[in-house]
UniProtKB/TrEMBL annotation, chain A:
Belongs to the leucine-binding protein family. It comes from the Bacteria. PROSITE patterns: PROKAR_LIPOPROTEIN. Residues 44-378 form the Leucine-binding protein domain. GO terms for biological process: amino acid transport. Residues 1-28 form the signal peptide. Pfam families: Peripla_BP_6. The keyword rRNA-binding does not apply. This is Branched-chain amino acid ABC transporter substrate-binding protein.
Automatic annotation (TrEMBL), chain B:
The lineage of its organism: Bacteria, Bacillati, Bacillota, Bacilli, Bacillales. One of its GO terms (biological process) is D-alanine transmembrane transport. It holds the Pfam family BPD_transp_2. The keyword Membrane applies. It comes from Ureibacillus sinduriensis BLB-1 = JCM 15800. It is found in: Cell membrane. One of its GO terms (cellular component) is plasma membrane. This is ABC transporter permease. PANTHER family: BRANCHED-CHAIN AMINO ACID TRANSPORT SYSTEM PERMEASE PROTEIN LIVH, HIGH-AFFINITY BRANCHED-CHAIN AMINO ACID TRANSPORT SYSTEM PERMEASE PROTEIN LIVH. Keywords: Amino-acid transport, Cell inner membrane, Cell membrane, Membrane, Transmembrane, Transmembrane helix, Transport. Its main location: membrane. CDD domains: TM_PBP1_LivH_like.
TrEMBL record, chain C:
Pfam families: BPD_transp_2. It comes from the Bacteria. One of its GO terms (cellular component) is plasma membrane. Keywords: Cell membrane, Membrane, Transmembrane, Transmembrane helix. It is a multi-pass membrane protein. CDD domains: TM_PBP1_LivM_like (cd06581). The keyword Transmembrane helix applies. PANTHER family: HIGH-AFFINITY BRANCHED-CHAIN AMINO ACID TRANSPORT PROTEIN BRAE, HIGH-AFFINITY BRANCHED-CHAIN AMINO ACID TRANSPORT SYSTEM PERMEASE. This is Amino acid ABC transporter. It is found in: Cell membrane. The chain crosses the membrane at residues 12-30, 37-55, 61-81, 88-106, 150-171, 204-229, 241-266, 278-297. One of its GO terms (molecular function) is branched-chain amino acid transmembrane transporter activity.
């Protein structure tokens, strides 16, 4: 029996060694791929994105936005960016592995992603420790840029978006009593809810009831009936657009006609697609206003639709801008060096992107104006 | 408010009950838990979305299409994953459980690839019709769902007890070998069972699509787990138990939200089954001591 | 020369080792005929206990891990006792339900667990170890390693030792009276009872051992990741763990080890098919059950490979 035991261990050890051996080798010899070539700056940017699983729609939009920006930037010729895209499947563990893979490649200049805040919380401290710049394009939860020096984001935090939307909504409707509903098993909606609740308390609104829902649920009638019976002036809903749209649909069917104020994740053309007329009356703050008449937005919409056959949402737009911000910093850094790049990026100020005027504050968080939009007659219009 | 919540609870409970009927039928005859049932239900819902939304078919045709597709899935499930395991030596009783988990993973991710990750709206004019009773708005769909669940339950009970095929089915459930010696074509009966159970999943899928206007690849798991809890609650393989268990769960969830903490909604099904397993393992309507098969 | 000590590979290696522990945590109860789908829940108990203790009370990591594993083990006993009445699929579903209930509690107990936002800043084993050796005046550069490499190497070695010790224990146990009792219960409970085996004791023992191991793995997971949230311990995790054991071979411990290694590596090596990964998983499970329900590795295969005769008591 001992013999078998020993053999088992031997097998184990061999497997482990094989793993290590299979893994060496790769790293050698690609030195110098980064660097100047006839005036163009070459850089490899790592991307960790949620490409398979329940939330793959977000990751898809993000990578599509990035790829569109990449082809445009490379066409302009000043810098040449190569994207190395890894899938995280929405799991913190896999996001960490994927980013380790990227970080251990010395040619990777910086990282964009991961998609979810839960993944970002696991990955960013590691990147910060290794001195690799990392930027979230969709991570709006509290406490992201505070992780470290090398951690940035261009996604507008809920702490910026939600109060703006709530103030404007209350100003116009004169609402005094609000009901709240939020997804309590998702980091984004949970953190959005906390911001909402705090803002509501600060504004002196009366919170009538707080309801929760969970992922994969399709029946919100029980919560909505309860809300309906408290007769709110306004409903604060921290939900992702997928669930949020269904909530609105069921609410309207039930006869709840008051406006909804949503967080960042609620803002998508998909809301109209899913809920139809029921989506009217949704108020959100957003860096991205797809119906805008501005030429750069119209152009972007056109190009994006031609390429992927669908209209871009904010995730695509933010990712698109993120790569431009990186390219801009790279130009100012002058060479593809991690340290120089980090300094250049941190100094980003008054960058004119698709989403408007953009700067980083001292901890790497977003400074920009947010627009408040609402859905009216089946499309997004600017909120007045 | 009470009346409205009661209607919400009964609607939800009826859907749970129809899903649970599918589980219980397969368990009653084959003694296995079909973990893929929730995903078959989800596929049924998607067929409804596609036929009404994209192709613009009328509702009755969507029902027919959904039943056909889920029946085919049921047939494939039986043929490819369950039959190879049956009667094979050395196959543990856990093999079908794991095998159907495989099918559920496959179906969920396949529909994810085909239909995309997000929610799809289910638009039919039928779902918009409502009547006012006093202060309460009742949608015709809600009544239809309740009626269909009752009809299915009664129909199934009668079919099982009165018809020849139903008797053969029960004989097969009792003892496969004896039934086969007595001239029952057990293979056919088993295939029929899985097909009927799957078709009921398809019906439930369309009903959910109509009632809640949301269909996504992930919905199978959520409702499948609940269905699982219900058949334990009501007693494995018991038609009446599935119905009562479904309504009980639908009502408890709704009233938990209405008068308690909505955060624990998903836990209530499992708290109930953990309790029932400890107090009365055979379930509310189960007759004999449950035996692991 | 030491370039091959690459954090990425070591990270994957560490996850593989944690997954081996998880696979073994399913294997042990299974060796006495109990299918537990609650390992994700027990894992969560271990992870949260250890993370909360180390964050809030500055407990040393190893004490936190021990506490996490023990608490999971104790819960295993508490759950294991009444679950004795349940067999087969009933037990599987009850434990599945238990796992879900535990997750929902993590989500809702916001004052303690911060809900779905999760716990950030869980002390990481590697960095603590680095500080420890630095306290002795040792610097990684003394053996020609970067800090980063050294940290990951230490974690890997530590986990490797824990896994080795666990496997050693399980294998030793299998060839003792306890292990033979387990397998006799698995074969035929009634016969085992009539032979004078205390079924209750041994079933609870194996169930609690599984819970303990899952808790241990969870606690280590927390301190390797540095961040945990309830979604780490969902139904999907439970199924994934089950697949490790079932795929590799549920009759022999080496099967669990093989399953965990192979299935953790596969998505990494085949990142290009990662989009279809779960579809492949699903098909694989179905085919496997139809063709080889005992999993890839079984006693006969091992015997043929190594020319080892199955000794008395066997390697079950």
């Amino acid at each position: 029996m001992d013999k078998l035991l020993r053999k088992s261990f031997a097998l184990c050890a061999v497997l482990m060694l094989l793993l290590l051996a299979a893994c060496s080798g790769e790293n050698a010899g690609s030195e110098g791929a980064t660097g100047e070539q006839s005036g163009t700056l070459n850089a490899k940017i790592g991307v960790v994105s949620y490409l398979t699983g329940a939330g793959a729609a977000y990751g898809e939009a993000i990578t599509q936005g990035l790829k569109l920006a990449q082809s445009e930037i490379n066409e302009q010729g000043e810098v040449n960016i190569e994207l190395v895209i890894e899938d995280s499947a929405g799991e913190a563990e896999q996001a960490l592995s994927a980013s380790q893979k990227l970080m251990s490649d010395d040619n990777i200049l910086a990282i964009i992603g991961p998609t979810l805040s839960t993944e970002f919380f696991a990955v960013a401290p590691e990147a910060d420790l290794n001195g690799i710049t990392i930027m979230g394009t969709s991570t709006t939860a509290e406490g992201i840029p505070e992780i470290g020096d090398y951690v940035f984001r261009n996604a507008i935090p809920e702490a910026l978006a939600i109060p703006t939307a709530m103030e404007k909504a209350v100003e116009r409707t004169g609402a005094k009593k609000v009901a709240m509903i939020y997804g309590n098993d998702d980091v984004l909606t949970q953190s959005g809810f906390e911001t909402m609740k705090k803002t509501a308390e600060d504004m002196g609104l009366e919170i009538l009831t707080i309801e929760t829902f969970q992922k994969g649920q399709s029946d919100y009638n029980a919560q909505l009936t309860k809300i309906k019976n408290t007769n709110p002036d306004l409903i604060l809903a921290s939900a992702l657009y997928n669930e949020g749209a269904v909530i609105m649909d069921q609410a309207r069917k039930m006869g709840i006609e008051v406006p909804f104020v949503g967080g960042n994740g609620f803002n998508s053309p998909q809301v109209i697609e899913i809920a139809g007329d029921a989506a009217n009356g949704l108020i959100v703050a957003t860096p991205w206003f797809g119906e805008s008449e501005e030429t750069k937005v119209v152009d972007f919409n056109k190009k994006y639709e031609a390429e992927y056959g669908e209209l871009p949402d904010q995730f695509a737009a933010q990712a698109y801008d993120a790569l431009y911000i990186y390219a801009d910093a790279l130009k100012r850094a002058g060479e593809a060096d991690r340290e120089l790049f980090h300094e250049a990026l941190a100094a980003t100020e008054d960058f004119e992107g698709l989403l408007g005027n953009f700067s980083f504050d001292e901890i790497g968080d977003v400074v920009m104006d947010v627009k408040v939009v609402e859905i009216k007659d089946g499309k997004f219009v600017e909120f007045e | 408010m009470l009346l409205e919540q009661l209607i919400n609870g009964i609607t939800l409970g009826s859907i749970y009950a129809i899903v649970a009927l599918g589980f219980t039928l397969v368990f009653g005859v084959l003694g296995i838990i079909n973990m893929a049932h929730g995903e078959i239900f989800m596929v049924g819902a998607f067929v409804g979305v596609m036929t009404t939304g994209v192709l613009g078919w009328p509702l009755w045709l969507a029902f027919a299409a959904s039943i056909v597709v889920t029946s085919i899935l049921g047939y494939l499930l039986e043929r490819m994953t369950l039959r190879p395991l049956r009667g094979k030596k050395g196959v543990s009783h856990l093999a079908p459980l794991i095998s159907t988990i495989g099918v559920s993973i496959l179906l969920e991710n396949l529909s994810h690839h085909i239909f995309g990750a997000g929610n799809k709206p289910f638009r039919t004019e039928f779902a918009e019709i409502s009547i006012e009773i006093g202060q309460v708005t009742v949608y015709i769909v809600q009544i239809v769902i309740f009626a269909i669940s009752i009809i299915l339950m009664i129909g199934l009970s009668i079919w099982l007890s009165k018809t020849k095929a139903g008797k053969a089915l029960r004989a097969t459930a009792e003892n496969l070998e004896t039934a086969s010696i007595l001239g029952v074509d057990t293979k056919k009966i088993i295939t029929l069972t899985v097909i009927i159970a799957s078709a009921m999943g398809g019906i439930a899928g369309i009903l959910v699509g109509m009632a809640f206007n949301s269909v996504s690849p992930q919905m199978g798991l959520a409702i499948g787990l609940k269905g699982l809890a219900i058949i334990i609650l009501g007693g494995m393989g018991n038609v009446k138990g599935a119905m009562v268990g479904g309504l009980l769960l639908g009502l408890s969830e709704t009233f938990l939200v209405a008068y308690g903490d909505s955060g624990y909604r998903d836990a209530i099904a499992f708290i109930m089954i953990i309790l029932i397993l400890l107090l009365r393992p055979q379930g509310i309507f189960g007759s004999k001591m449950a035996e692991g098969r | 020369m030491l370039d091959f000590i690459n954090p990425y590979y070591l990270q994957i290696g560490s996850f593989i080792l944690i997954n081996i522990l998880l696979a073994v945590s399913v294997y042990v109860p299974l060796s006495s005929g109990q299918l537990s789908l609650g390992s994700a829940g027990f894992m969560g108990i271990g992870a949260y206990t250890s993370a909360l203790l180390t964050i809030n009370f500055d407990l040393p990591i190893f004490l936190g891990v021990l506490a996490g594993a023990c608490l999971a083990g104790i819960l295993g006993i508490i759950v294991g006792l009444p679950s004795l009445r349940l067999t087969g699929v009933y037990l599987a579903i009850a434990t599945l339900g238990l796992g879900e209930v535990i997750r929902v509690i993590f989500v809702n107990w916001e004052s303690l667990t911060r809900g779905s936002i999760g716990l950030t800043g869980v002390p990481q084993i590697g960095r603590e170890l680095l500080n420890l050796v630095r306290g002795f005046g040792f610097e990684p550069s003394m053996i020609g390693l970067k800090n980063n490499q050294f940290v990951f190497l230490l974690v890997f070695i530590l986990l490797f030792l824990i896994v080795l010790a666990t496997i050693w224990f399980v294998v030793r146990q299998q060839n003792s009276r306890v292990g033979r009792s387990f397998s006799s219960i698995q074969m035929d409970e009634k016969a085992a009872e009539s032979m004078g085996i205390n079924i209750m004791y041994f079933k609870v023992l194996s169930f609690a051992q599984g819970a303990f191991l899952a808790g241990l793995a969870g606690a280590l997971f927390a301190h390797v990741m540095g961040y945990i949230s309830p979604s780490d311990f969902s139904y999907h995790r439970a199924v994934e763990i089950l697949i490790f054991t079932v795929f590799g071979g549920s009759e022999v411990i080496i099967g669990s080890v093989f399953g965990a290694i192979f299935l953790t590596l596969m998505p990494e090596l085949l990142r290009f098919v990662s989009e279809y990964r779960y579809i492949i998983y699903g098909i694989m499970l179905v085919i496997l059950m139809a063709v080889r329900p005992q999993g890839i590795l079984d006693i006969h295969l091992l015997g043929r490979f190594k020319g080892i005769k199955r000794s008395k008591g066997g390697m079950r």
